[in-house]
Amino acid sequence: MELLKQRIVKDGTLKEGNVIKVDSFLNHQIDIELLNEIGKEFKARFVSDKVDKILTIEASGIAIAVIAAQHFNVPVVFAKKTESKNLDNDTYESTVYSYTKDKTYTIRVSKRYLNEGENILIIDDFLANGKAAEGLIDIINRANCNLVGLGIAIEKGFQKGGDSLRSRGIKLESLAIVQSTENGKIIFR
Amino acid sequence: MELLKQRIVKDGTLKEGNVIKVDSFLNHQIDIELLNEIGKEFKARFVSDKVDKILTIEASGIAIAVIAAQHFNVPVVFAKKTESKNLDNDTYESTVYSYTKDKTYTIRVSKRYLNEGENILIIDDFLANGKAAEGLIDIINRANCNLVGLGIAIEKGFQKGGDSLRSRGIKLESLAIVQSTENGKIIFR
């Protein structure tokens, strides 16, 4: 998606540890118009697929998922990372290791919001090693739902998550795949 | 807002500790159409106010804020609760006590995304004791921005946050104010 790639080049910055910082428009301050274009593009990429629900993970996936959901006319469910009195006790759980935060955490979705046989599209802002995606897929499997595929804004193509999903025949649509960040320059696949 | 009140009565449940559980449509599974009506209503309530940016707090405020932002044509910034390698070191910080989670946490906004003199509207899903709201107002003050007011989906009117803000002349627009939950029945103000 050319608009997103241009924006990454214009406003993204690289930081130590292969971090691509896009918090001026995607995951801290949020450019709503850009998100809307991203949502339209996800709809175009999954236009032939039946989607009953969009699944994402808090926190930064939520913005992109709810704007995309307007183009699919389906509800969003977001997996929670934190314990809360407000969450049902009866949840599907999985475990995710975050390289960015260097810790392992449990993600949870109430069993009430994933019904057997539903077609679930995963939407998230980033895919790198794919740990969050694997956790969400695990939850979809536990709920006996069907995984439609994954819509990702930015994939780090130099990490293994995306290609691992593709090699298993999973439909993965990444709108910008960063192939390399060597010498401080962002090169797309 | 009648539509929201009806939905709270229909799908909301009461749990121990004055918890009003609306996770089937507002803060775990998200009804996008309802959120869009909520966004429209916030715009109507603040139509005479100049708003440059919407500020919210992760995680459940994000969905409501980004949908509302489409009606204001402004960016959203969300305060972060967790340490992250991706966050600038140079942040405005405040401390918030969460009754729901029974812990104190630090919220942070990068100094780059709140500019002196900007008019900031706070949007969030819930207001109870007002601790999160006070943290966000503190950050707005530290950044020398102007607080336009607060748009809240559900206010717990039997807790003191809302009336404390109103008594200080702050413009607070709550779309549904729950005055009482006695005997398991939700009564609106």
From TrEMBL, chains A, B:
Principal subcellular localisation of the protein: cytoplasm
GO biological process per UniProt: purine ribonucleoside salvage; xanthine metabolic process; XMP salvage
Keywords: Cytoplasm, Glycosyltransferase, Purine salvage, Transferase
Catalytic activities: XMP + diphosphate = xanthine + 5-phospho-alpha-D-ribose 1-diphosphate
Protein residues bound to xanthine: 27, 156
Any Gene Ontology CC annotation: cytoplasm
Enzyme Commission number(s) of this protein: 2.4.2.22
Protein name listed in UniProt: Xanthine phosphoribosyltransferase
Gene name of the record: xpt
